[in-house]
UniProtKB/TrEMBL annotation:
Transmembrane segments: none
InterPro entries on file: Aldolase_TIM, HMGL, PYR_CT
Keywords: Lyase, Metal-binding
Name of the protein: Hydroxymethylglutaryl-CoA lyase
Length: 298
């Protein structure tokens, strides 16, 4: 049955801004993260400790973490693809990190330059050190409903990688429809197959909105009892230079729907929409979120 409350993992400062064609100033990122915390979000993915040659947009993550106004009860996780990333994250005093695998071999190679099996081997020492330091680790699986390079991705592969991440010590797995190609029945069947193996409470949704299906897919999966959903304020992402990619489900759209369903999120929609307008105006655009556009026109 549908959950009574949903925990939203805000990924805009990371998944959104990693796709910007230009470099976003540290102060702009810090203002965004602080505004998101002010709107009531309690999980704000704030950057990545990845190779600056691969993703230059996240090269300033240590500075961002040093300058945000850390609030009690709010976590500011970052991506760490390897031990080097975790060591840098620990030096920044993080309380949580995320490792990211894929259900598609081709995507794994393009994204982190290794096979799925190699990536899991690389994550083992990351999980061990994180555990020793009392740092929680989230796991991502990308391409759960399709891959830009390989096309179809078998559900069995999504389940297998998810189970491995949990067995290694991730507290939850976030299922990434990286290119937003999924539709509700397929999304629900995939999420059910994973939740049946790792548990509903360890299953999270991370849907991109490329084909406008993200909200419908989330609604379908909520019926399974899944209660953690990733979203990006203003639907950040979707850089004009990244072919085929689009932003995550917009947090405003998610909160509006959940408010209407009577599902608690703890997020103040007006404050959230203000944060979305501020960051998109700093980027020279308007929010991709329909809800944000409607609220701005009122
Ligand atoms: P590689 O080139 O195979 O790694 O990249 P390497 O170990 O040979 O290192 C190459 C250079 O990077 C070296 O520097 C390392 O020191 C440095 P050099 O000696 O050439 O000067 N390096 C690092 N620097 C800083 N932090 C680190 C780090 N590691 C190595 N942690 C690697 C392998 C994984 C590093 C690379 O492929 C990488 O950084 N990939 C990141 C890609 C990425 O961030 N993608 C976006 C996030 S995933 C995503 O968006 C999907 C998600 O949203 C879910 C969904 O939507 O599906 C999560
Ligand atoms: Mg993503």
């Amino acid at each position: 049955a549908r959950p009574v409350s949903v925990r939203i993992v805000e990924v805009g400062p990371r998944d959104g801004l990693q796709n910007e064609p230009g470099l976003v100033p540290v102060a702009t990122k810090v203002a965004l993260i602080d505004a998101l915390a002010g709107a009531g979000l309690t999980m704000i993915e704030s950057g990545s400790f990845v190779s600056p040659k691969w993703v230059p947009q996240m090269a300033d993550t240590a500075q961002v973490l040093a300058e945000i106004d850390r609030r009690d009860g709010v976590r500011y996780p970052v991506l760490t693809p390897n031990l080097k990333g975790l060591e840098l994250a620990l030096a920044s005093g993080v309380e949580e990190v995320a490792v990211f695998a894929a259900a598609s071999e081709a995507f794994s190679q393009k994204n982190i330059n290794c096979s799925i099996a190699e990536s899991l081997e690389r994550f083992a020492p990351v999980l061990d050190l994180a555990k020793a330091q009392g740092v929680a680790v989230r796991g991502y699986v990308s391409c759960v409903l399709g891959c830009p390079y390989q096309g179809e991705v078998p559900v069995a592969k999504v389940v297998e990688v998810s189970e491995r991440l949990i067995a290694m010590g991730c507290y939850e797995v976030s299922l990434g429809d990286t290119i937003g190609v999924g539709t509700p029945d397929k999304a629900k069947a995939m999420a059910r197959a994973v939740a049946d193996q790792i548990g509903v409470a360890r299953t999270a949704l991370h849907f991109h909105d490329t084909y406008g299906q993200a909200l419908a897919n989330v609604l379908a999966c909520l019926e399974l009892g899944i209660a953690t959903v990733d979203a990006a304020v203003a639907g950040l992402g979707g850089c004009p230079y990244a072919k085929g990619a689009s932003g995550n489900l917009a947090t405003e759209d998610l909160v509006y729907m959940l408010d209407g369903l009577g599902v608690d999120t703890g997020v103040d929609l007006d404050a959230l929409a203000r944060a979305g307008r501020a960051i998109t105006s700093a980027l020279g655009r308007t929010p991709a979120s329909k809800v944000a556009q409607a609220l701005a026109a009122k």
